[in-house]
Amino acid sequence: MQERVLIKDLAAHEDGPVRVSGWVEKVRDQKFVQFVVLRDETGAVQLVNGGVLREADPENPRSDILLERTGTITELTHGTFITVTGELQHNERVKLGGVEIQIDKIEVVTRALPDNPVADDSGIDVRLDWRFLDLRRPEQNLVFRVQTTFLHALRQVWVERGFIEIQTPKLMASASESRAELFEVEYFEGKAFLAQSPQFFKQMAQAAGFGGIFEVGPAFRADPSFTSRHATEFTSIDAELSWIDSHEDVMELHEELMVAGITAVKEKHGAEIEKLFGIEIEVPSRPFPRIPLAEAKEIVKERGYEVPRADADMDPEGERQIAAYAKEKFGHDFVFLTDYAASIRPFYHMLNEEDPSLTKSYDLIYRGTEISTGAQREHRVEVLEEQAKAKGMDPAELAFYLDFFRYGMPAHGGFGMGLNRVLMLMLHQPSIRETTYLFRGPNRLLP
Fold first, then answer.
1. Does some domain include residue 444?
2. 3-state SS, residue 310
3. What 3-state DSSP class applies to 421?
4. Quick one: DSSP state of residue 357?
5. Which side of the chain, N or C, has fewer Cβ within a 10 Å radius?
């Protein structure tokens, strides 16, 4: 059997016999000619049946073949999967890739029902109900090719720097950060919790002597939020590294990763992104702007918006305002907010020696939305215990975690970042529902 050719490779093929397979996207059934737009996982091509025959012709020795082929094409439904062999022809007048295939043989592999549940104007909930159909759209296909390219670029940076990839457990005996937003599950005779982050186990790798580590994996938050940027299950990009002097070392790694990832996306998919999404990918320059949180709140206030609570994190509108400021002043889509108050940071963030009310931590804002939190971690066990107590936590419940620090722990730090948010913002999408393979929220467990 002739080998199948991917549609993206047709332009490089010489004219002649070819075999393609894919989903029927459109049929134009005219009186003397039939056109079929066929799409596979790499693109679309026009198929042409010039031998249309509507009724048997006794004088034509190919009458039966032509009649059957015409009837097969007439009955094709949107989404039907077919295999076609025919003659590839390069034709500059064909808008769809400059090639077309004159059909010789058509085989219906699986037939789609005639009533497609997803229309061009279907809303996000309908599209998520029929996600496998929604993912056939070129825009959605591109999202996940962009994701693949982005992650590959990040992995290249980590591997070149000698980092180790780990996979941490998602079933935990206790909370990884706090007892809020936890999913509790039955676990034999007891109970377990779904991991909110791999934080504790990332730090364990530092005690184990791994040095730089990274993980790309699921995280879970029992957050009853219906915003465009929250999910109950999401993909977290995490990194941790030893032998740092401050959180500035973490920020420099973070910058390197983001520049590498966005550069790779622009180089490989920039033209297609511009065609399908109408946007130009901008590769950020280094260093990214850095603004202490207290100063950022004052800047936002001068722009006419005041964050509701002085002792709180930057809220969504504040993030949008400080991002607008960074774009206006620095021409930058990214901005680090630094020096967060200890009162709004986890117990394991290191305090600033000169001002213990502040932590050596940051949030990274991208195009108006927070995508990551990073920090230098506290590596002295006695200090950790005191900081946990100050947060109302019982060190006894953290015994397994605190043990990591009792046998020699280097100075270290790291970050966690939401992959789906990054893709949403990079591709100017309205919601992470568009950049998550299968979205999970408070009212969605299917498909």
1. no
2. coil
3. helix
4. T
5. N
Residue 312: what pLDDT? 86
In a domain, 204, yes or no: yes
Along the chain (447 residues), what's the average pLDDT of each consecutive run of 10 residues? Answer: 94 97 97 96 96 88 92 97 98 93 98 94 96 97 98 98 98 75 94 95 98 98 93 98 98 98 98 98 98 97 92 93 98 98 96 97 98 98 97 92 97 98 98 98 96
Euclidean distance between the first and the last CA atom of the chain, given in angstroms as a whole number: 36
**Element holding 264 (H helix, E strand):** helix 247-277
Residue 3 DSSP code: P
DSSP classification of residue 226: -
- For position 17, what pLDDT does the model report? 97
Domain count, the chain: 2
Residue where one domain finishes, among candidates 52, 80, 110? 110
Residue 331 structural domain: 129-434
Query: For the chain, how many residues are written?
Result: 447
- For residue 232, what is the domain's CATH number? 3.30.930.10
Q: Specify whether 311 is located in the same domain as 380.
A: yes
Calpha distance 169→199 (Å, rounded): 11
Q: In CATH, what number is assigned to the domain containing residue 53?
A: 2.40.50.140
